[in-house]
Design goal:
Low-confidence stretches: none
Order of helices and strands: HHH
Number of strands: 0
Number of domains: 1
Strand content: under 5%
Number of helices: 3
Radius of gyration: 17 Å
Largest sheet: none
Shape: elongated
Length: about 100
Amino acid sequence: MNSFLQHFIIVLPLTILLMGLLGILLWRKNLVLIILSLEISFISSNIGFVLSSLYLDDVFGYIFSLVSLTIAGSEVSLGLALAILLYRKLDNIFIRSLNKLKS
């Protein structure tokens, strides 16, 4: 049973991280979907912190997970604010339209 828990701690966050990276690769033209995929990647690291904290019977994984969630939340709010400003200026949220902002 102990070996199963060790593999579960490694496999679950890695699977969710790969899903987030796959989302970034598949939807690299849409800014909102990229931000969503980045948030999935951040969640996978937090799941890894919490599961390893459970396994080691330690509280530092929970604390680091809360700090990481706070930073990820501020990153997402800033990214969505930039996406709203981009939509107001250019009427779309595609990455290729960011080149129009240079002029």
